[in-house]
From TrEMBL, chains A, B, C, D:
Its EC number is 5.3.1.14. It comes from the Bacteria. Keywords: Isomerase, Manganese, Metal-binding. The keyword Nucleotide-binding does not apply. It is an enzyme of class 5 (isomerase). GO terms for biological process: L-lyxose metabolic process; rhamnose catabolic process. This is L-rhamnose isomerase. GO terms for molecular function: L-rhamnose isomerase activity; metal ion binding.
Length: 390, 390, 390, 390
């Protein structure tokens, strides 16, 4: 097997965007539980995100969600983030929390509603221009709840038109990434339910339109790493929203539900040239999109970026030459054995030592717990309205 | 095939409880859309429920949810409902919206939290005593999100103890019905995830403890009518929460997603003696539990009770003697054909005529639309706080 | 609602290809049950297929599977079919029953194995040339059972090359249709697991390469009618393999498991211009692909084509203008009601009468049962080897 | 964390029954691939099973399947196995490969068919008496394919009667274990589809009737470790059929699809007292039930028992005291972290060393490959009929 020493250089520069909303409260339709220390402002969210980066070295950017992260001065926000050592990453639009969007936004039958949704994306692009963000991410929470309620195909055509208009507004160094999701909040049909739909829509737009793959947005049993491989092959994998799930879009900590799946996904990313440290041409963005409903949010994020890092190390350990040889000789058990050998290797001690050589804590979870940051924010952040999905 | 005339008497007395919360606002974790005319008080919810009954003759009871339906004087509420022609049905408890219940209620490791949850059920029993309700329904929204977070088995033991205490408080003419659910709001393990768990828990309690079957609370592909047949065989089917789903617990209008499944379920209810009009000994309660997130609420409920009635009529039309003969002769296509014949029969014209003979509108949906009730409540219900899940 | 009289002309010319293998024995991995009267030869299969057409007027073509339907003289077979009133339809290739294909065929790492599989398709094209078939259907039963066993992406590239070679061999009036399937017989990854993969592969080939949609080949919960609408929108829906399922690829009689789903699918076919009687430009082929493991095969096929016809009639009954009006006004319940009204209409009496006006039996199932055909073949087909999947 | 030294004693005596049929050919409904060296006789299967034990020390018993393993003299077979160092384990009945059982066996409407199936179980008990087997395992491959085909509830009643008769035939030291399965080979309803049904059926029989849990026989998303915990709590977990799956009943190598799930399952077994080395009172049988369709069979089985052993070691490493403390303090991330720490620990080097101290090869896979056994059986086993599912 490849040794840790061999792969260590490829761990340099791994970057995972953390989402601002992960630091605010989230929950289910039944209840949102609050917790002490939750940010009240965008700046406090950015500060928490920067804290994750400080303890891990893995999270140099924070993605924003508009309008949850509306501020008056994005240039100032960008500067503030920079002072804390992080940059502003992907800008996420929101077309699911306005009463006008009850039956659709970019797909709505009413031209005025569509234009309103398009205008919202124009605002997002303005934010991008101010923050220096590369990616506009569109998750389309649109669909219908009852058969016959909408014209499935007409909606698809309107979506294409709306996206075209938005795409045309981007500058040459900006990208549009279109996320797909199997279901929720619509329960009969969803307008972008699968990678095929996202792919065909972005392929019609142009080179700077890409697919965003949220690892929790698939039907039960879906082979997600296959989709990763396919999208990389087609040159259309734009970004990841990492999280994990046992059932539906559970939005649990990445790697928590099925660590082996995360390993397989990252292996295909590396194999397909989507991992920047081993392929400098890669533009695939690694992001988290999770809900810390019941666990502490900052350590939840630290745990998550560490999970991605640990599984990346394991995936890099796969002896690719030996694997190829076994595959080509039809040695089913041998090939699987080489693959599993890397997965079962405990990379944590080596990673701890490697972190220390780079001025990072060997155990970021423990270091955070002992740092006093949590106690500080719990003491400081009294009054005001805790951030959430609104 | 059996004729409509033959089955018409068996449609007499069909009763479906409607839930008070169906008239308030509901939504997903992303957004709750409001709509004009939504009730602000328990009394307004009861009035809407009574309206459904007035137009359909199918919904003589309304189930309440505590604390969403807290009032000072349940005797007065009971009298008010009676004046409107309906009674108070099942009382639903709530152990998922208090901060103390974040990690469990009846299963919590902390005895004080468990006692608080038990006390809440005692309050519900007090309400039952005042309203004359027979059933205390417990949906246990408890579980864990991460492997290792809780002691799965210890929680099961504590649940048994808590239920025992609650059950002991019931009077002899009251029942405890325990609902199961596959997942949500917990995303790793749920404490009562399947009928087997609900059954073994209530079987340990006694004769007046039963299972509540929510038709949307199963894993993908589950044969729900099999569970209906099994629970009736075991004498433990207490009640239904009807709704429909394409994916998870979508809570769509009953019969909307898969009308044929509803037909099969009701067929097994009738065959197993769980349909009161054809088996006076039956104590199985038919209830709705749905979310009208985007559609109008009162017509949504009218549509729902009509769907149950129409599918009941179809299920009654099955020529049971011919079916048995085909089954016993091993005639696969013949038996299936007899079954499908009833399903494909359009009972709507006969039902319309039958309704009119009983002083009900032939087309309750149209009659409601033309009645002016909706316009009236939209005009009247201005100000105040629209009811929802809180 | 639209009346039956209005839609009757659109029922003219509906054509459903029946598969030769439906008349042979099939089963599960556990057991294949035989039954009296099962065909021993290709000719007997064609005769049974012609019988289905004679009783229904719906099945003017029979699709073949190579090598299960190998004969020396396809010109003679074509003539024989013609005498019986049917034509030879789609030719299906088989790359899953040769020992060489254990680890792949068109995707195999070994160039010799790939060439063997390509050559098999050349033979199929020869058959097409002799039979006058338009479509070469490729179901790729390829994949892997264990992570690491194969190079997922390399296989995709080799598949593209193999398909290119096959496609180049087709004449200008022939088409290649590529079927996708979620899983089975491979249990970890499948090389063409979803419509997106099939679409991107055929889009790379050219205009005469299309997607084949088998209604049973999706993940649990997949909205199949959405895929139908999308593929029609993209101009890439080549053909259907109809059947139904409760769980996986159960291959039950079409419409048996979820009649409402079949209704929704056919509605989208019509709406999208894929139904030839209402859109003469349509080239979408309707086929069955089912397994009659325990039921009688010929009546199983009769039941199936009737189910498609009945559901087509219902889908045609949808009042499209009223539906559009309701959709555009945002009337969720109204639009759904218009849609359901057509589904719940019992078209069987009108269809029976319509059949009689065309010289067909009003009740094809009964007419077949009373015809003596089944008794005849049971008496005649003694000795020899019953046809099956080999 | 607990150290390997502490847990090593608990690895002593771990025993996993291997199934005789794993050494024969298996496949899908599409194709069964053969391979050189496949056993032709029961004795050769037992020899292969004994080989697995010789290289691993983990597989001291082999389970038989009647009639696949029919021999004239079971006493001789028992002696032969003993000479090779293994015993005969569970006896599996088969009621799915006789034409009479097409529509049912223990549930059939025809009393004669039921009696035939009961008599078959009596024969299996005779075999048990001769082989000294403790357990009669019944997997009921019964159900129906079409709604209406059978009387779901009547079948359940007949099943209860049939099981009663079989159970009464057992001696006091024998057990009946009833396996459940979500679907296949029946595709509409299955007579024992879930643990609840198996539990209620065996609970009605008596103390020596238990549930068999096949890890691949559940609906998508099912929390299998919850069922393990529940059955142990109810005192009704009789045995495991281990294997793994991505989709349906894929019957892949245990631990291959989701190693973390295997870890969670074994953790609950240990926690619930079902692991004999740490609870001498436990009578839970660990068995494999897998299909090596494309991989080599003997190394496939070696890999499997090693996977169970490795995951058992990891599960034993969980620091139960620390876990309980974290759970009781509501530390979600802490409790999960303790749990994951054990899972991520690489126990393989310690296990290799431990094996050597016990006279076993450090790397059983490599030792087998280098032993020449495979070459020997490939050379020896020429001619005859390779064993399979018949």
């Amino acid at each position: 097997m490849t040794s840790f020493t061999q792969i260590a250089p490829l761990l340099e520069g791994q970057a995972i965007e953390v989402p601002s909303w992960a630091y605010g409260n989230s929950g289910t339709r039944f209840k949102v539980f609050g917790s002490p220390g939750t940010p009240r402002t965008v700046e406090e969210k950015v500060a928490d995100a920067a804290t994750v980066h400080r303890f891990t070295g893995l999270a140099p950017a924070v993605s924003l969600h508009i309008p949850w992260d509306l501020v008056d001065d994005y240039t100032a926000l960008r500067a503030y983030a920079g002072e804390l050592g992080v940059s502003i990453g992907t800008i996420n639009s929101n077309t699911f929390q306005d009463d006008d969007y009850k039956l659709g936004a970019l797909t709505h039958v009413d031209r005025k509603v569509r234009q309103k949704a398009i205008d919202h994306h124009f605002e997002c692009i303005d934010v991008m221009n101010a923050t220096g963000s590369r990616d506009l991410k569109i998750w389309l929470a649109e669909g219908s709840n009852y058969p016959g309620q909408g014209d499935i195909r007409g909606r698809q055509d309107r979506l294409a038109q709306s996206l075209q208009t938005i795409y045309a507004r981007l500058s040459d160094d900006q990208r549009l990434v279109l996320e797909y999701k199997f279901f929720e909040p619509a329960f009969y049909h969803t307008d972008v339910p699968d990678w095929g739909t996202s792919y065909t829509q972005v392929a019609a737009l142009g080179d700077r339109a890409m697919v965003c793959l949220d690892t929790g947005h698939h039907a039960p049993g879906t082979n997600v790493e296959f989709i990763v491989a396919q999208l990389l092959r087609l040159g259309k994998l734009g970004s990841f929203d990492f999280n994990s799930r046992f059932y539906a879009d559970d939005d649990l900590i990445v790697g928590a539900a099925d660590p082996f799946q995360l390993f397989r996904i990252i292996f295909e990313v590396i194999r397909g040239g989507g991992y920047a440290p081993s392929n400098p041409d890669s533009e695939v963005a690694f992001m988290l999109d999770q809900c810390h409903n019941i666990e502490d949010k900052i350590p939840g994020q630290i745990r998550s970026v560490l999970n991605v890092q640990e599984m990346t190390a394991r995936a890099l350990l796969v002896d690719r030459d030996a694997l190829t040889a076994a595959q080509e000789s039809g040695d089913v058990l041998g090939a699987n054995g080489i693959f599993m050998d890397a997965f079962y290797t405990d990379v944590r001690p080596d990673l701890a030592a490697w972190r220390e050589t780079r001025g990072l804590p060997a155990d970021p979870m423990r270091a955070y717990a002992e740092s006093g940051y949590q106690q500080q924010i719990e003491a400081d952040r009294v009054g005001g309205t805790q951030a959430g999905w609104n």
